[in-house]
Every structure is written in structure tokens, then in C-alpha cells.
Specification:
alpha+beta; Chorismate lyase; Arc Repressor Mutant, subunit A; about 30% helix
Length: about 240
């Protein structure tokens, strides 16, 4: 005998068909939980399970107190030596850089001093910013820049729409980097910045960028929403070139 699908799966599959077919367009709000309960004749628990599944599939974004909205297309980054903002703009996204904490010269953490080849306890420029992508908070950055880029640059850094263009204008164009990519959970503060619940999963990228003479100039960590961001890596066999 064929088993009936669970109530949450029936609702999830129905909403998924409406989203993928375009009946529910990107940016449109789903009916409220109460409306879905009434429409499908089910309780709150399967409604919430269905919405959670759709969120994990990357089809919707859930906002506490506001409801669930059909999500825009996935962000994608490739492995090229350009800034993330430039790359996302090239892919057709609208990117707005928001300064969370203004750039200032402060004592750098020990790991940053090692990466930037500075004596322990040295100062570096620290900048905390966020990217709104297509109007939605998607990436949080903590940048540390070598003090060798010059004095009194805090205001200039805050106004720069592209960090790498700014560095290039100062004669410190990054031409290579060493990068570590991992997955992890967001702190409560980071989750709040990205409009997510605490302990949400994020893609974490840590990059140390170098100038032409292989001098380190930047140590940056950024946390990207795992439901909105992916990477594309081009892989080839040098022996077949």
C-alpha cells in the first residue's frame, strides 16, 4: 500500500512548485503561517517544518516578525584576484558597501601581525564593513591593512567602494593571495548583522593578499550567508596544458 506523504512534505512540495514555476516570483512574500495553516488545514508544526525545508533548499528567506520571502538568485564567486564587490557587480548584482565600524589604526591581533609580517603588538588599519547584495545583507568583513599603505587613511578607506581599487591607487595593488575557506557558525552579533538566527551556518573565507614583491598588505576574514553564496573553482591538470 502506498503511504501518504507527511503533511509538511505536501505543503513544501506545493510551495516549491509555485516558486520554481515562477508563480511565486522572486521578492514576493509567502502567505503567513496562520494563512498556510488555514489554507492547507494543518497545524503550525508541519507549516514551520515545510518553511524550514524551503529555507534550507535556498528557495526562501525567513524574517522573524515579517514572514518568508522568495529568495533571489544565488550569489557565486570565482577564483580570480579581484575584490568580491567587483566580482559580484560583474555578475549582475547590485552591491552596496556599508561601513559598520569606521577604519582606524589599532593594535592588531597576533595572527594578523604574523600574516602582515609586522612586529608583535604593531598597529594596523582595521575596517569592519558589510555588503548588501540586491538589497539584502549577505557578507560581513573584518579587514586589517598594513600600516605601510600610509597615515591618516581612515576616511578614505570608509568611502572606498572597492578595497582593491583603493589599494591600487596607493601603489599597493594586490596581485596574489593565500586563502583558507571553511564553514562555521555565526556569533549572535554576526547573525544579527546578516538578519539570521544565532548559530546559523556561514561560509568563512580568510585571505592574505600580497603585492608584486610578495609583500603582505591585507588580512581579511569574511562571513558569507551559506544560503546565498557559493564559489566556483576552475581546476585543470598542468601536464595537459
Amino acid at each position: 500500500m502506498r503511504r501518504e506523504a507527511p503533511l509538511y512534505a505536501t505543503l513544501r512540495d506545493d510551495l516549491q512548485r509555485q516558486i520554481t514555476s515562477g508563480r511565486l516570483e522572486v521578492g514576493s512574500w509567502l502567505p503567513s503561517e496562520a494563512e498556510l495553516q488555514k489554507q492547507f488545514g494543518i497545524s503550525q508544526s508541519p507549516v514551520r517544518r515545510a518553511l524550514r525545508d524551503l529555507e534550507q533548499l535556498g528557495l526562501i528567506s525567513r524574517h522573524q516578525g515579517r514572514g518568508s520571502v522568495v529568495r533571489s538568485r544565488e550569489l557565486s564567486a570565482a577564483n580570480r584576484m579581484i575584490g568580491l564587490g567587483t566580482e559580484l557587480r560583474e555578475r549582475g548584482h547590485v552591491v552596496e558597501s556599508v561601513t559598520v565600524e569606521p577604519a582606524r589604526l589599532e593594535t592588531a591581533p597576533d595572527y594578523v601581525c604574523r600574516e602582515l609580517e609586522l612586529p608583535e603588538g604593531s598597529a594596523a588599519y582595521r575596517l569592519h564593513r558589510m555588503f548588501l547584495v540586491d538589497g539584502e545583507p549577505c557578507v560581513v568583513f573584518i579587514h586589517f591593512l598594513s600600516p605601510t599603505i600610509g597615515d591618516g587613511l581612515g576616511g578614505d578607506l570608509d568611502r572606498a567602494s572597492s578595497l582593491y581599487q583603493f589599494l591600487s591607487s596607493r601603489g599597493f595593488a594586490p596581485i596574489g593571495a593565500r586563502e583558507t575557506i571553511s564553514a562555521g557558525t555565526l556569533s549572535s552579533a554576526q547573525a544579527a548583522e546578516l538578519d539570521l538566527e544565532a548559530d546559523a551556518v556561514a561560509l568563512i573565507r580568510h585571505r592574505v593578499a600580497f603585492t608584486a614583491n610578495w609583500t603582505p598588505v591585507e588580512s581579511t576574514t569574511y562571513w558569507a550567508r551559506a544560503d546565498r553564496y557559493s564559489m566556483t573553482l576552475d581546476i585543470h591538470d598542468p601536464s595537459q596544458a
